[in-house]
Amino acid sequence: MSPRRRGEWPATAVAAAVVTAAVVVIAAAAAADMVEERLTVGMTLLPGAVSTGAVCLDGSPPAYHLHHGSGAGARSWLLQFEGGGWCTDVPSCAERAGTRRGSTRLMTKLEVFSGILSNRPDMNPDFYNWNRVKLRYCDGGSFAGNSVFRNDTTVLYFRGQRIWDAIVTDLLQKGLAKAEKVLLSGCSAGGLATFFHCDSLKDRLGGDTTVKCLSDAGFFLDLSDISGNNIIRQFFSSLVSLQGVQKNLNQNCLNTSDYPYLYALANIITPYFILNSAYDVYQILAGIGAAVNRIPVHAAHPKLQLSKQVCLRSAMLTALKQFEDEPKVGMFVNSCFAHCQSELQDTWLAPNSPMLHNKRWLVIGILKGVLPRKLTVPILVIQLATTLSHLIRNCGFRSLGDDYTCPISKKFLLLVK
């Protein structure tokens, strides 16, 4: 067996993640598809941006998909970063450049807008009539890199920062400059990008525009796996070094004595909301559980599998607790065995959304009156033991069904002791 390249997760982990995700959502997705009329939106390429160095890994131009708003939402904008992992060394980035993750030439030219991007008021009541944009992800560095790699056979462009700048520049000419409200969001690698660019977008749009940010599955923990190896830190350190990300990171964070061991969120000024699972399937399989994932599935003891999930939940809540008293921070951490919950209709809002105690649980947030009316996020209850639903109440976030903390079942506790 050939050695695994640095920057790649074990194939077993990736396969397990895909299978798990499919099992989790396939039934709900099938039902949602029956009732949802899918909106497809064409791609807008920016060939002129190539001259500024704003290009994908393979040198192709950046792209986005825009569905224009109407009525009361005509001057409101939602910018959604596409996710899709990262590449952290030359071989993996060269391979990525030959896929849709590294080239707009290989991407689908039509994208389905669902979930937070849907145009249906019954499926997306708060943002359906906003100008909604999906930014295509082709740099492998969460829209943050700014470097080029060259040797005798390969040229790779790590120009995520320039791609972001070019797309915003183009959107400013199409109405973003006159926006009253803007929500910057993203999933996974796109969720991480919202943290990178939240303040810079606010600075670029100016004081008259209200800007908020929503990171979906973008909070990645700095943890060692159960064998004691901190592969997460190694992974992201390689990403920062290869792609020249450091010069684009938050300078207040870089100037602290605790860098790089301090979560950058403490230095973000613009209000933001975190949507994350305490049982994030990606971080369980590729992070703290990486050592377990190298064990054949039939040999991994159920207690070991369950204990690493509880470990992640505990670490997630502990890490986020330091932001509880921040007046401009809100969060919703649920128990879904999932990764990303805002982009798919069945995990955003649908007639078949799972119910807890015969109620559909929604999160309503009025963040100092900035977001219109409410931000609605259904809780997808799929974990065998429903655990904590953690809401920061000082930002105005609460549950519809009164204050509630889901208990851990006795059966679950016995399994992990």
In terms of structural class, how would the helical and strand content be classed?
A: alpha/beta
- In percent, how much strand structure appears in the residues? 15-25%
Low-confidence stretches: 1-36, 289-304, 356-417
* Rg value: 21 Å
Helix content: 25-40%
Instruction: Give the termini distance in whole angstroms.
Output: 36 Å
Please give the largest β-sheet: 10 strands, mixed
**Helix and strand string, N-terminal first?**
HEEEHEEEEHEHEHHEHHHEHEEEEH
What is the number of beta strands?
Answer: 15
Mean pLDDT: 74
Order of strands in the sheet with the most strands? 4-1-2-5-3-8-9-10-11-14
Walk me through the topology:
Elements: H1 11-35, E1 39-45, E2 63-67, E3 76-81, H2 90-97, E4 110-113, E5 131-135, E6 147-150, E7 155-158, H3 160-172, E8 181-187, H4 189-205, E9 210-216, H5 231-243, H6 251-254, E10 272-277, H7 281-288, H8 290-293, H9 302-321, E11 329-334, H10 345-348, E12 362-364, E13 377-378, E14 390-391, E15 398-399, H11 410-416
Parallel strand pairs: 3-5, 3-8, 8-9, 9-10, 10-11
Antiparallel strand pairs: 1-2, 1-4, 2-5, 6-7, 11-14, 12-13, 12-15
Helix pairs in contact: 1-7
Protein architecture, described:
With about 425 residues, the protein is α/β, with parallel strands linked by helices. It has helices at about 10-35, 90-95, 160-170, 190-205, 230-245, 250-255, 280-290, 290-295, 300-320, 345-350, 410-415; strands at about 40-45, 65, 75-80, 110-115, 130-135, 145-150, 155-160, 180-185, 210-215, 270-275, 330-335, 360-365, 375-380, 390, 400. The chain has 11 helices and 15 strands.
